Amino acid sequence: MSALVWVAALFLVGLGIIVLEVFVPSGGVLGFVSLAAILAAVVTAFIELGVAAGVGMVALTVVAVPMVLGLAFRWFPQTAIGRRVLPPPPEPADVIPDTPRRRRARDLVGRTGRATSDLLPWGAVAVGDEGLDAVSESGAIDSGTAVEVVGVQGAALVVRPLVAVHPPASVPAPDRQEGPVRPGQAEPPVEDGPGYLSPTLETFEFDTLAPPDP
Questions:
Q1: Are 168 and 118 in contact (CB under 8 A)?
Q2: Whether CATH 3.30.360.10 fits 95-161
Q3: CA distance 208 to 210
Q4: How far apart are CA 196 and CA 191, in angstroms?
Q5: Which is deepest, 18, 31, 162, 186, by most CB within 10 Å?
C-alpha cells in the first residue's frame, strides 16, 4: 500500500470519528482518536511524500475539520438522538400570549381593583369578579391593598397602589357686613388694612393722657 493511500485513509478515518463523536458522545475518547488519526496522516505526508504534501495536508485539515463539524452539528438535531438531546425550538404560536387574554387585560387599564396576594412584585389581583395575574409597577404591594391598573405586561396587569386624594379643607371667609352702607355709617375697617384699629386701641381712653387744667 502506497504512502498516499495511508495518508488518505488516516485522514478520512479521523474525519469519520469526528462525526461519530458528535452523534455518539464518548467523553472525549473518540475525539482523541480522531485527532491522533489526522495527526498521523499529516506526519506521514511530511515523511513519505515531502514537505509540499505535508503543508497541503495541514491546509486541508484546517479547512476540512471545521466544515465536517459544522455539517455534523447541523444534521445532529434531525437524528433520533439529537431530538432527544436537543429538543426542537417551540413553535411561535406556543410562545405568543393568548390573544383574548391580552385583549381583556388591555380593556382593564384604568380600572381599580384589590390585591388578592402579596405582589413581590408578581402576584394576583381581583378587578371586579375577575382574578388575574399582576405585577407591581414599583415596590411591593400588600395583599388587600386597593390598586389601579396602569398597563399590561404580556398577559399580566401592571398595577400600582391606589392613593385616595382628599380635597383641601375650605377656609371660611371672614364675616363681612352685607347690604348697602347707610348714609352717615362708616364702612367697616378691613383687618390689617388702612384705617383698621385693633379692639384694644378702640377702647383705650386717650383723654386720660391730656395734662390737667392749670
A1: no
A2: no
A3: 6
A4: 6
A5: 18
